[in-house]
Structure formats: C-alpha cells, structure tokens
Specification:
- With 232 residues, the protein is of the alpha+beta class.
- The protein is built from 6 helices and 11 strands.
C-alpha cells in the first residue's frame, strides 16, 4: 500500500433528491461506501479493524432537505482519470445521489467538513406566505443575537450574529437563506423557521428545503466553491 504522501484526493460533487432526501447522514455515508466499492475505484482504506474507506463528507444535511451541491473526498491509491472516475461512480450510485462532477484537490487542504462552512438554502413554500411579516420576524430574531431550541433532550444555542448571514426572496414563494457554520454550531433552516412561528404567533405555510450553494469562506469574506481545485 502506498504511503499517505502518495495517495490522491478526489473530490466528488453530488446531489441529494427525491425520497433519498430522507436518508440520514450516516445512511448516506454507508450508501456511498457501498457505491464506491461497486465502482471498482482503487480506494484507500484505514488501518483499523473495520478497514473503512478513507472518505470525508461535507457538513451533514438535515433529514428531509434536498441538495444540488454536496461533496465528499475520497483517497485513491492510484490516480484515475477524472472522467473515468465519474463514469464509474455514476454507474454504481442511485440516481437520487448521483455524482455530477469530480476532480483532484490538494492533499493539504483541511478536512472538507471544516473547510466548507457557508451555505445557501432555498426554502420553497407550498402556498402564499406573508413576506413582510416573515422578514420582520427574521429581523427580530437576528436582533436578539441568539436562538435557543431543543434537539431531542439537549438544549442548543445558536449565535445568529455568526450563523445567519442574510436572506432574500428569489420569487414570491421562495426564500433564500445564507448561513455560516461555526465551531460551536450550525444553523438549520427548519430551526430558524420554527423560531419565526413563535414571533409571528402562527405557523408558516408548509415548505421544502434545498441546499443550493456550499462554499469555503476566506478571511476577507470571499467565497470559494467546493469544486474549485485551484484553491489551497
């Protein structure tokens, strides 16, 4: 087996759609592991008893959210042409998780989960929503500075000053949220919208959530796409 310095870091972009949007993160990891094995790519494995594939994923999606821009990094023992690797992975992966792009990235980049911290989300409401009222509720929450909620039996606190970057309306029924993950917490759209209901005093209309952007944020605020292989 080659040393770690000889391994090749292949970054794969994929979507998550349809009924597969309801897979949990661990289920996605296990599914992708089986797909990679079926693809026949020369993947590297760890030294532990389980001999797991050396694989890293971008930040977990909430269950039920779809996405156009998820990523994983796969370490290969041999450098396979990107086009061939993509064909092999597509042939071995369900359509709802199908890869759309792959390319090699520098080995020295940080772990992908920690590197890609900015997200954009489309929240599509199934029927009319009072935009002005929802905007007002979002401003009130942001002005409070923090958001508390329960996740299972655990109390969570999210700093909205850090995690809620902004929002806009692409069209009357589609809200776009920009969020940032920090070392302390990440902001889930459903948690934010649930909190707006407390401000509004009523439920928001049913909605679906899709992640439409995922980037690395530089110290100057610039954004680098996950598939930008020039970034180091």
């Amino acid at each position: 087996m080659p040393g770690r310095e000889q391994l090749h870091r292949l970054r794969v972009e994929y979507g998550k759609d349809g009924r597969l949007a309801y897979l949990g993160h661990l289920e996605v990891i296990n599914t992708m592991g089986r797909c990679i094995r079926r693809s026949g790519l020369p993947f590297s494995v760890g030294n532990g008893f389980a001999r797991r594939i050396r694989l890293q994923f971008s930040q977990a999606l909430p269950v039920g959210a779809s996405s156009r821009c998820e990523y994983y990094d796969l370490l290969l023992t041999d450098r396979v042409n990107e086009g061939e690797a993509l064909v092999r992975l597509r042939g071995a992966t369900p359509a709802g998780l199908a890869p759309v792009w792959c390319g090699y990235v520098p080995r020295e980049l940080p772990a992908i989960e920690a590197w890609l911290t900015r997200s954009a989300w489309e929240v599509s409401f199934s029927r009319g929503v009072d935009r002005d009222a929802l905007d007002g509720a979002l401003r009130q929450l942001r002005d409070r500075g923090s958001l508390e909620y329960m996740r299972g039996e655990k109390r969570k606190v999210v700093d909205l000053g850090q995690t809620l970057v902004g929002w806009d309306w692409d069209e009357p029924g589609v809200l776009t949220l920009q969020t940032r993950a920090t070392n302390q917490a990440s902001l889930r759209p459903a948690v934010l919208l649930s909190a707006t209901q407390g401000v509004l005093g009523r439920e928001v209309p049913p909605y679906s959530v899709c992640r439409v952007g995922l980037w690395h944020e530089g110290v100057d605020g610039s954004l680098v796409e996950g598939l930008d292989t020039r970034s180091g």
